[in-house]
Amino acid sequence: MTFSGTQHQDASGDASARLGHRQITTVMSGLVLGMFLGALDQTVVSSALRTIADDLHGLTAQAWVTTAYLVTATLATPLYGKLSDIHGRRPVYLAAIALFTAGSLLCASATSIYTLAAFRAVQGLGGGGLMSLAMTIVADITTPRERGRYQGWFMAVFGGASIVGPLVGGAFADRAGLLGIDGWRWIFLINVPLAAAATVAVLRVLRLPQRRVHHRLDHPGALALAVGLVPLLVVAEQGRSWGWASPGVLALYAVGAAGLGVFVVVERRTGDAALLPPRLFRIRSFRLGVALHFVVGIGMFGAMTTLPLYLQLVRGMSPIAAGAATLPTVLANLAVTLVVGRLIARTGRFKVHLVAGCGSLAAAMLVFATLGVDSPLWQAALGMALMGAGLGAAMQTLTTLAQCEVPREDMGAATASVNFFRSNGGTVGTAAFLSVLFSTAAGRIADRLAEARQDAAYRRLLAEPGNAHALTGVLRPGGGVRLQDSAFLQTLDRGAALPFLQGYVASMRVVFLAGAAVSLVAFLIAAWRVPNLTLGDD
Fold it and tell me: What residues does the Major facilitator superfamily (MFS) profile domain cover (predicted)?
């Protein structure tokens, strides 16, 4: 196979034509280390964020630690795709690892919640390239038919990180200090040896032909995208606390919409050198792939945010125990990912797996919607297994769909676009699901408290000194509740806590039903709009 257009081809030819399974596996070992670095960091930090915020006296500002990383990682993702098309994959991938490592060291030295947020932004600049570049490199060195077989490894990496992360984060957060350093700071310091191992692996195994596209970087497009996305991402993360219709939020809506409008105009004028080339959206499979990534991302991230809250708030599990309880998701994900990857490599057909995966995600949401305060754990485990199987079948096939008809010279930009839209879908899903949850929970809890207080035995239970002390500042004089902090549930008697738990479950049920509806939309698009293509071997 030859390459045409503006790209440059090494004399050794197309990588995908000359690399066998053992060689591809060797390259994958380096990519997996880089991806594990980014995936582990996200789950480790989220499980220890409350402890970090307490130590830095910034409990009310802790959301900025997540927002800062999200904004820069999302913005950097399409930039990495275009930079790797221009300068080659390996140097840009190494630069992403270096930026991520520098941000990790800065985070470990943070002295306030705001400096930590700023340093997390630096981390995000590197983290934005760790996943998209790895997926791009796999697309470079494999044929469309065998691509899913290897991309499935990445889903296994994220599944493993979702288990290991809370365990490591909880272990460090629970320690006051280690070797004279605050325990939580090791959450960031452990990235350094992992990054060193990833760098060595990439330097040793990632030796591929240089296939560069001779374009300049689309600076105007990058600036317009930043102006459009930053306000909207900030609103998505902070809108619930600021008020979705407050004057400041409305102003951010306007700035974001204007920025995105300018971005579309700039990209059309820039043509082939555009950050997100408009011509890609004329390819049906790519257009459907990124659209489905956005829709599935809403449901996936929304569920993955809400489910731990059920395990921790309602079932009273610690972050470590809640992470371990999600093992059915990981096992189902890994098993289905490997099976589907091999089936696609054998038959070249992927639509059936995509449709089944979206259907499994919808079924998982419906199972989660049936969970109650005292539901058996096997019921939650069933939903987790369905979710893991759905993600294992859908995510790799969505990426395959988006990439299958894209010219190789645009593979970096196309793969970055896939991750870009999934990340934005995840942001929308997380913000929307949590907004629905916490905006409805207070009213539902108040209703159940009012019903419970009609029982004299429950009133006596609330009057007990331990329960009365735990509820100080929680119960409003008019019968309402304040839910800024859930720590009171840890000391409240189980019987006294029952109305609170029932209220949370009722709100979570609404959230999961919304997730089922979103997943059903993805199922319908996959079933009726995605063409039944057969992947080739070139």
Answer: 27-534
pLDDT higher than threshold 90 for residue 22: no
pLDDT in tens, 464-485: 888 777 777 667 666 666 666 6
Token pair 């930079």: residue: 83
SS3 of 143, please? coil
Q: How many of the other CB atoms lie within 10 Å of CB of 111? A: 8
CA distance linking residue 137 with residue 145, whole number of Å? 15
How far is residue 91's CA from residue 71's CA, in Å, rounded to a whole number?
A: 23
SS3 316: coil
Domain ranges of the chain: 1-215, 219-274, 285-538
* Alpha carbons 141 and 138: distance in angstroms, whole number: 5
Cα–Cα distance for residue pair 150/152, rounded to 1 Å: 5
Q: Where does residue 439 fall: left (phi above 0), alpha (psi -120 to 50 degrees), or beta otherwise?
A: alpha
Contact assessment for residue 255 and residue 85, using Cβ atoms and an 8 Å cutoff: no
* pTM for the predicted model, two decimal places: 0.77
Closest by alpha carbon to 435, among 221, 254, 246, 236?
Answer: 236
Q: What is the pLDDT of residues 158-177, one digit of tens each?
A: 767 766 776 777 677 666 66
Which residue in 412, 402, 427, 408 sits closest to 79, CA to CA?
412
Q: Are 290 and 522 in contact (CB under 8 A)?
A: no
Task: Please say whether the beta carbons of 274 and 221 come within 8 A.
Answer: yes
| Secondary structure (DSSP) of 419-470 | HHHHHHHHHHHHHHHHHHHHHHHHHHHHHHHHHHTTSHHHHHHHHSHHHHHH
Q: What does the pLDDT look like over 196-238, one tens digit per residue? A: 888 888 887 776 665 555 666 667 877 888 888 788 877 876 6
Average pLDDT along the chain: 79
> What's the CATH code, domain 1-215?
1.20.1250.20
Q: What are the tens digits of pLDDT across the range 286-334?
A: 999 989 999 998 888 778 778 878 887 888 887 667 777 888 888 898 8
Phi-psi group of 180: left, alpha or beta (phi > 0 → left; psi -120 to 50 → alpha; rest → beta): left
Give Cα 114 to chain centroid, integer Å. Answer: 23
Phi-psi category of residue 283: left, alpha or beta, with phi > 0 → left and psi -120 to 50 → alpha? beta
Backbone angles phi, psi at 481, to 5 degrees: -135, 150
CA–CA–CA angle 294, 295, 301 (5° rounding): 80
Tell me what pLDDT residue 528 has: 92
Question: pLDDT, tens digit, for every residue of 28-49?
Answer: 777 887 778 877 777 777 666 6
SS3 content of the chain, % helix, strand, coil (to 5): 80, 0, 20
Please say whether the structural domain 285-538 has been given the CATH code 1.25.40.390: no
Rg, the chain, Cα only: 24
SS3 56: coil
At 486 the pLDDT is 66
